[in-house]
Design a protein that fits this description.
The complex is a heterodimer of chains A (390) and B (112).
Chain A lengths: L1 H7 L4 H14 L3 E6 L4 E4 L1 H7 L3 H4 L10 H17 L9 E6 L5 E13 L2 E10 L1 H56 L6 H29 L6 E3 L1 H15 L6 E6 L6 E3 L1 H19 L6 E8 L3 E8 L27 H11 L3 E5 L8 E7 L16
Helix pairs in contact in A: 6-7, 6-9, 8-9, 9-10
Chain B lengths: L1 E5 L3 H13 L3 E5 L2 H6 L8 E5 L7 H9 L6 E6 L3 H8 L6 E4 L4 H5 L3
The chains are: A alpha+beta (390), B alpha/beta (112).
Chain lengths: 390, 112
């Protein structure tokens, strides 16, 4: 075995040079070698693509030509500083820097620098990776996430408004009915002081005013309709998966996506749907955190009338006592937040003419949340506003 | 004739009973659908006021049951929820009367 290797481990200068060149030109990353005066000695094929200069053009020239002006100005100083002090700022560390194409375009690269002591003096090797694509993805995800956070805020406000309106309605209803009852009683008492009746009247008026405020608030938060457009569900789910995995790299949760073939386009508000799915996935990931096997599976399928997106987890399921209040605002068992997530999600689903339901799971397996959205909803409006009977 | 009030909010339930008693009605209150079912079924001349958002068995389940009786009482549904939530709760069923909270005396009394 050893003999076989030893032949290819030739130290013959020409063999080793040919091999080096082949390595350099095969590399996907740009590789540049410069001497201690920052002159380019070696410049591989990937660099030619990256910077637009050919190897002949740059050989012997200062490496500065590959940098934007502000870097270029300081580069000689950096090299001198290192040679004088031995203090490492980039060698063996690597960092994100900007590079400059021949046409003047600047672009982000990841640069790592190594050093070699050769018979011809000290040389520096720079390896450069184009990270434009990665940057673009990062930017898109950051935008999507910011949009989601924003949507969540708006919806949390809406939902909070609706919840407050609903909760205040109860005592207010009781107050108004009590007042009306006492007013009737008072009317039957002869010779009662007039102020008594007038105070009750005024109190009733104030309670009515409060109830009108609540009704206005309710109309305001109920008015917001989804901004529908055609939605490619598999693509949307893929983005959801990207979004949640971006935040939870270390948790080692197995995330998977299973989409039925030939799903039709959905007519829906993509941001709202994404928000619901992301919310369900985050909950699912939270639920499996302490489970022996951690997996969250998102699937999409269709029935005759609905498209069903299901988020299934391998957690302990939803405790039966929590099921009735699960979708109600302010009933969450989480210590943080208002417990609005599922309430918002359900109301978003209902705004789309669909629904959000849960199979709580338990001894058999984790919970399954199903988001059901109507398929033939082109141009179909959500249920018409009911005329108030009061 | 009795007015049966099925409402989980004790304040609303008590106030409703008090007001209806003050205009001369006989009332019975129940905190949930389950306790309503434990009693003798209502008669044709009775009225059932039911909150749609009951815990446990829902208001709509109660309405369906009442609508299956041979002698049907009148059903008034009340709810403090949004119109969309009400639509989804009703799921196609319709009570005789639907009133939204806060309740107004006139709106209620005209149906009794």
């Amino acid at each position: 075995m050893r003999e076989d290797y030893s032949e290819s481990l030739s130290t013959d200068a020409s063999v080793s040079k040919a091999r080096l060149h082949s390595v350099l030109d095969t590399a996907v990353d740009g590789i540049v070698v410069m001497d201690d005066r920052a002159r380019i000695i070696l410049y591989n094929k990937a660099c030619e693509r990256l910077f637009g200069y050919s190897a002949e053009e740059v050989r012997g020239r200062n490496v500065k030509i590959l940098m934007p002006e502000d870097y270029a100005e300081r580069h000689d100083g950096y090299v001198r500083h290192y040679l004088d002090t031995g203090e490492r700022r980039i060698i063996g560390i690597g960092r994100e820097v900007r590079a400059r194409h021949r046409d003047g375009t600047e672009f982000p690269i990841e640069l790592s620098v190594g050093e070699a002591h050769t018979p011809e003096g000290r040389q520096f090797i720079g390896i450069m990776r184009d990270i434009r694509a990665r940057k673009a993805v990062e930017r898109r995800l950051a935008q999507a996430q910011a949009q989601l956070v924003n949507m969540t805020r708006i919806n949390a406000l809406d939902e909070m408004g609706a919840a407050i309106a609903h909760e205040l309605n109860q005592p207010l209803t009781a107050i108004m009915l009590y007042l009306q009852a006492i007013k009737r009683k008072a009317a039957g008492i002869a010779g009662l002081d007039d102020t008594f009746a007038s105070v009750i009247d005024k109190t009733v008026k104030e309670a009515e005013r409060a109830s009108q405020i609540i009704q206005r608030m309710r109309q305001f938060v109920e008015k917001r309709d989804p901004e529908r457009k055609p939605v490619d569900v598999p693509q949307l789910l893929k983005e959801c998966l990207e979004l949640v995995s971006l935040g939870d790299i270390s948790q080692e949760i197995q995330l998977s996506l299973d989409v039925e073939d030939g799903l039709p386009m959905l007519h829906a508000d993509p941001v709202q749907i994404q928000q619901v799915v992301v919310n369900l996935m985050r909950n699912a990931m939270e639920a499996v955190k302490c489970a022996p096997f951690r997996a969250v599976k998102v699937s999409a399928s269709k029935t005759d009338t609905h498209l069903v997106i299901a988020v299934r987890d391998s957690g302990p399921g939803v405790p039966p006592e929590l099921v009735p209040g699960l979708f109600k605002p302010f009933s969450g068992s989480k210590r943080r937040g208002l417990g609005l997530g599922l309430a918002i999600s359900k109301s978003l689903a209902q705004n789309h003419g669909g629904d959000l339901v849960v199979e709580p799971g338990g001894s058999e397996g984790g919970a399954v949340f199903q988001l059901k959205l109507p398929l033939l909803s082109t141009g179909e409006a959500p249920p018409a506003e009911r005329a108030d009977t009061n | 004739m009795t007015i049966h009030i099925v409402e989980d909010d004790p304040g609303v339930s008590d106030a409703l009973a008090l007001l209806l008693a003050s205009v001369g009605h006989e009332t019975a209150t129940y905190p949930d659908a389950e306790s309503f079912f434990e009693e003798t079924p209502p008669g044709e001349r009775d009225t059932v006021i039911v909150d749609l958002g009951l815990p446990g068995l829902t208001g709509i389940q109660l309405i369906r049951w009442v609508k299956g009786l041979k002698n049907q009482p009148k059903v008034i549904a009340i709810s403090g929820q949004s119109s969309r939530a009400i639509d989804s709760l009703l799921d196609g069923d319709t009570p005789d009367v639907l009133l939204r909270k806060p309740l107004q005396e006139e709106a209620l009394l005209q149906h009794l």
